[in-house]
Amino acid sequence: MRIDDALIWAEYTLVNSDSALLDAQVLLAFVLGKETIYLMTWPERDLSAQQKLQFEDLIEKRVNGQPVAHLTGEREFWSLPLKVNNSTLIPRPDTEILVEIALTKSTVNAHILDLGTGTGAIILALASELPNAVCTGVDFSEEAVQLAIENRDSLQFNNVSIYQSNWFENIQDQFDIIVSNPPYIDANDVHLKQGDVRFEPLSALVANEQGLSDIRHICEQAKHHLKEGGCLLFEHGFEQGALVQAILRENGFINIKTEQDYAKNDRVTLGHLA
Ligand SMILES: C[S@@+](CC[C@H](N)C(=O)[O-])C[C@H]1O[C@@H](n2cnc3c(N)ncnc32)[C@H](O)[C@@H]1O
Q: Which domain holds residue 50?
């Protein structure tokens, strides 16, 4: 089978995916061990029998809903190649907004904490931009911690510590910036039955109190771990901006602000410690 024919077959087979051609390209490039540009450059090249079998197997798994990132074991975030697995969230493009805003609040040698670091996406993106910052990422899941450590080590960042902690439980230090993309989805949200989230752990997605319990807990504790004037930033659901603002206000934060994502939905709310 030729590369162009394989892509036509796969796009047709993936009728239920919103991104059928892109999925097919990423998976075929993965099978061939090449960049996707190779597929456009050499459409007439033949797949070996083994490559054809492997590609068909991946397309079948994708038809059954498995996320492309789980099939390739990798996802790019902030132009950093990150390993992913089913212990935590697959990093989403919208989370880059949180990184962009955190960067505007950071000095070159800031002490930065990422709560619920998962793959390490947020803290590694920040560390890539701020090589003199002192960066820490923590997660409750031991498996996620191992994954984030692997990602840090393969990127060779030497300014990032990663360890296990139930939110602030094992954290002694004080920080200029605390960022978090915590679980914020309500357990009854219909979106939990759709798309990639079906294959991601509920521990990375769901929180009590209509999805706000972890955000509330972090707000209550963050004041003990932020330096004076320090900034706390959350990613949250598109309908949670006003609620997160209220929680920050109740906990004494000032200069509170909500920012929108690329689709103009409320996505990040931040506040400063007086
Ligand atoms: C929405 S995911 C975000 C992952 C990553 N920061 C990202 O943006 O791609 C939330 C993360 O919080 C972690 N988490 C959940 N409860 C936690 C807790 N009590 N303490 C620390 N981390 C927790 C989960 O294991 C998961 O990795």
A: 3-65
